[in-house]
Design goal:
The chain has 363 residues and is of the alpha/beta class. It contains 13 helices and 15 strands. Strands 3-2-1-4-5-6-14-15 form an 8-stranded mixed β-sheet, sandwiched between helices. A 7-stranded mixed β-sheet has the order 9-8-7-10-11-13-12, sandwiched between helices. Bound molecules: nicotinamide-adenine-dinucleotide. Residues 133-134, 137, 174-180, 197-200, 203, 220, 238-241, 246-247, 267-271, 299-302 line the site of nicotinamide-adenine-dinucleotide.
Amino acid sequence: MKIGCPTEIKPQEFRVGLTPNAAQEAIAHGHEVIVQAGAGVGAGFEDADYTAAGATIIDTAEEIFASADMIVKVKEPQAGERKMLREGQLLFTYLHLAPDPDQTRDLLASGCTAIAYETVTDRNGGLPLLAPMSEVAGRLAPQVGAWTLQKANGGRGVLMGGVPGVGPAKVMVIGGGVVGTHAARIAAGMGADVTVLDRSLPRMRYLDDIYGGTFKTAYASAGNTIELARQADMIIGAVLIPGAAAPKLISRAQLSELKPGAALVDVAIDQGGCFETSKATTHQDPVYEVDGIMHYCVANMPGAVARTSTIALGNATMPFMLALADKGWKQACADDPHLKAGLNVHAGKLTYAAVGEALGIDG
Ligand code: NAD
């Protein structure tokens, strides 16, 4: 199969769909890999890294879309890219179709087969191609929160780990899933005093078993939430109710009860945010202040560490990409129901019920 990897064109997207290592594995499986010139630069991969892996560098996205059997990307195809998709071509990338009727219409019209990273499942009921980005965002959250806490950045001027004779920062993490657990581990590693709140008792049992002694857990009742928030230097929002907007767990009125200069890091901003005063920000201008409280609400946090994110995503997508290339999508999906769960569009039809329901289109 000919596998094509174009340069990402969505603004501020520095990741790339194929790493040189993934290209090398595909080539070892007998496939041909074509990569657009400069596609890996944002993630720290030169064209020479791809040619050393056996791939061919191609100048334009047009040439890649015209000849590849499978396109491997990171972000959903942009309008110009969608025009280049062909009938029978396989597209493997993040799609997020439910809130995006224009993209859905174009993919249906193209006749391509599109497998979405975000709906591929695993045997534990998880989402293995979303998890690496949650791990990245979770581990980044205390790092950006620590920067936000610095006085010159508008924060309380509190050091995460304290120093001998001065106590550490108090960090509260709301939501103890993938993002929350990774955030809590890093914050604890920086020396902070960390408490994770969740509403799932099985999850808190698990966290207590594995991380008891590293961080504390508390039930996320409204009462506990505001009581701990009053003491916190940093609050990390990491809740998820699948398929729903994030619940608002701290209201604007409650901001006046928090410590002045406290840092709110709302990782759940891509689901609308879990603080009433959250609004999405960018890496260029990530932090703003409301009622003396600093808010960090970047919706694509993994983009800040494009190299780590690209490699983490590539590690997760590679086995699926190889199965699709080796067997063709039909056989690969027949053999693996978890990969089949990623199938969103085929030959002008929606094949993922939730997207059809969200958009009012029959499958
Ligand atoms: P997850 O499903 O692994 O964890 C979510 C946790 O929230 C679960 O443990 C659940 O029990 C808990 N929860 C649900 N409602 C709660 C409530 N009311 N109070 C307390 N806990 C509650 O999800 P995840 O992968 O950790 O993702 C968390 C959020 O981070 C999602 O909104 C995700 O889209 C977002 N995210 C954002 C970025 C970014 O760049 N901003 C990157 C990755 C993920």
